[in-house]
Design goal:
alpha/beta; single chain; 3-stranded mixed β-sheet
Length: about 500
Amino acid sequence: MSRLNQFTLSSVPIEVKRPNYDYQNVKPGIIHLGVGAFHRAHQAVYTDKLLSEYGGDWGIIGADLRSGRVRDQLDPQDGLYTVAIRNNDEKKLAIIGSLRAECVGPECPFHAVDMLASPSIKIVSLTITEKGYCHDPATGNLNVRHPEIQHDLKNIDTPKSAPGYIVASLKKRWESGSPSPTLMSCDNLPNNGKVLQKVIVQFATLLDKELAAWIKDNTAFPCTMVDRIVPATTPEDKTALEGILGLRDEGMVSCEPFMQWVIEDNFCSERPAWEKVGALIVKDVEIFEHMKLRLLNGSHSALAYCGYLAGFETISDVMAEPSFVKMCEVFMDREAGQTVIEPEGFNISEYKKQLRARFSNWGLQHRTWQIAMDGSQKLPQRLLDTLRDQLQASGNIDIICLAVAAWVRYVSGVDEDGNAIDVRDPLAERLKALCDKNPNDRVAMVKDVLTVNEVFGRDLRHETCFSDGVIRWLELFDKKGVLQSVRDAFPA
């Protein structure tokens, strides 16, 4: 089967949207670190729309700092790939042309650093997941003990970590007198721009204090809020698309129709006019960010851990169970909802309904196991910040305790049927070892897990109403299982 590329594009069925601009000659103005499925279904789509409607030199160079997997998918396709937008049984297809080149850091770190340092690059954006920042999620500080950070501080010309690549490129700009780019995090982190700034400046300070001062004075770190549900692409997805296109597309991504991007108006150089194609450029992202992280991501994680343990493969399967829908509704109104502020002119009640409808979209097949990955990095901002606000207000924390209990049971590595769980988490071995110390004593298990400062800080272990709540839910899971426990607590 022929591959999708510049030569076969003309044979794509007419109903499939394709680039209407000279994508091959668009000059790059953006480098994006972490060209995974989310970037290809979100920021690259906004940029493709902008190029289609307004033109400009805003092509994207994708930089992968881990492997050449995405490069190998897209290079034979001249950077072209398909976005399959799924809404239950409906599907729309669009071919994206904004990704113009790929580089793979580990294959040639010097080349990747040089590309990042090029004066023609005005924006360096990132979707490297929470763990890519090499920081302590509970404090936001750079983890100086991280092995890649240790390596990069000694070998800045051949970095391995995202902070290392960024600081190495900023060092070259500083030394050559080139302007700094805007560094724009698009990851699900509270105040993600400030987190990125803190990590970069702390790293640079350890390397060279004058360089750190130059970065502070010359580099912008806008905060952003990104939103689109993008499940992992499966072999079946690619086969189904092949039947429609008549071409093989190894770089395709699937996503929901909904898409949102809120960007702080804080740039130190030229930028794409993304607001012309639907992005919001605002003075303060935090109110939108809290709303999304706590209502959407918090609910998503709670449903993922509980749903996985209850035997559900996808989030839409979980949402077919009325008691989980009720749990989600209560969480959005109570635990999470009481800690967020409604933006001016925004209908938060409709937003919550829209979220639940998005979770129920069976066309996405978003696996609970995928959402459950890297929980030690996600819990602090998705659930534990909400927990602290509720504790301070003497509010209700019951469903947060339920979600954390499900996470503890999940990272213990054994499901309700005694089967091993493939836990993907930077702290997986450590968390399992803590759970295995006292496998039949839920009180001791919770006490041990709450000592993981990277997740819970130093404060939450002393909050007895929290630890007692987690213990109570774990003991209920032992007696009834997760599904029956939720059904009893949230009768539909």
